[in-house]
Amino acid sequence: MRTIVKTENVKKFYEQTKALQGVSITVHANDFIAVLGKSGSGKTTLFHILDGLIQPDEGSVCITGKDIFRMKKREFIEFRRTHIGYVFQDFKLISEFSAVDNILFPVDLDHEKVDEFYLELLLKELDIYHLKDRIVKTMSGGEKQRVAIARALINKPELVLADEPTGNLDSYNTEMVLNLFVRLKKMFSLTVMIATHDYAVAKRADHLIVLQDGKVQRDVYDK
Ligand SMILES: Nc1ncnc2c1ncn2[C@@H]1O[C@H](COP(=O)(O)OP(=O)(O)OP(=O)(O)O)[C@@H](O)[C@H]1O
Ligand SMILES: [Mg+2]
After folding, report:
1. Which residues form the ABC transporter domain (predicted)?
2. pLDDT average, residue stretch 115-138
3. Looking at ligand 1, which residue's alpha carbon is closest to its atom 31?
4. Amino acid 184: pLDDT
5. What is the pLDDT at residue 84?
6. Is residue 37 in contact with ligand 1, taking CB distance under 6 Å?
7. CB 36 within 8 A of CB 199
C-alpha cells in the first residue's frame, strides 16, 4: 500500500483556539477517507494545511512522500496543480462565469489543451451536462457543489480533498456524489478524502478518521 498523505504532529493555533493539537495521520493511495468531526473540530483547518493553503505552527505534511512545506513556492504551486484537487466548503466558484468556464478555470490558467472527452465524462457523471452553459449564480447549492467537484477533478489529481462535499445536498444527491467519488476513485486511481460532520456519510469510507477538539480521536480502517 502506497502512502499518499502522512502528517506528523501537526499543530495549528489561532490565538486562544487550538484548532489542531498534534494530528498524525497516514492515508493510503486509492482509499476513500472520511474525516468526521463536529463543527469546530478542525476539519477545514486540516484540509487547508494538506492543500498548502495555510502553514502549520508545528509538524510536517508529506504528500506522495514530499514534504510540502519544504518545497519552493513555485515547485509547490506546480505540485499542487497536478496532484491535488480541492472542493471548498463554500465552493469558491466565480458566480458570473458559466459552469464550464469555472470547471476549466484551472486548465485555462495553464493554457493547456482541454481534454474534451474527460470534461464530458465529468459533466455527465456529475449530472451537470445540461447546466454547462448556465451562469453559476443562477444555480442551486447542490448544482454549485457538483460544479465545484468537477473543477477539482479537471486536472486529474491523485488526491482529492473535499470539504463537506455533501453538506448542501439532499439525501438523493448525497448518495449520487458519494457513489460518484467511489466510481471516480476506481476509474482514475484517486484517493478521496472528505470532511464531514455526518456519520451516515463517513461510514461509506474505507478509512475513518474522527477529529475531536483538534485531535485524532479514532483512526480505523473498514475494508
Ligand atoms: N482564521 C481563523 N481565525 C481564528 N480561528 C479560526 C480560524 N479558522 C478556524 N478557526 C477556529 O479553529 C477551530 C477549527 O475550525 P475549523 O474551521 O477547522 O473547523 P471545522 O471542523 O471545519 O468546522 P465546520 O464543521 O463548522 O466547518 C474553530 O474553533 C474555529 O473557530
Ligand atoms: Mg469546516
Report:
1. 5-222
2. 94
3. 40
4. 85
5. 96
6. yes
7. yes
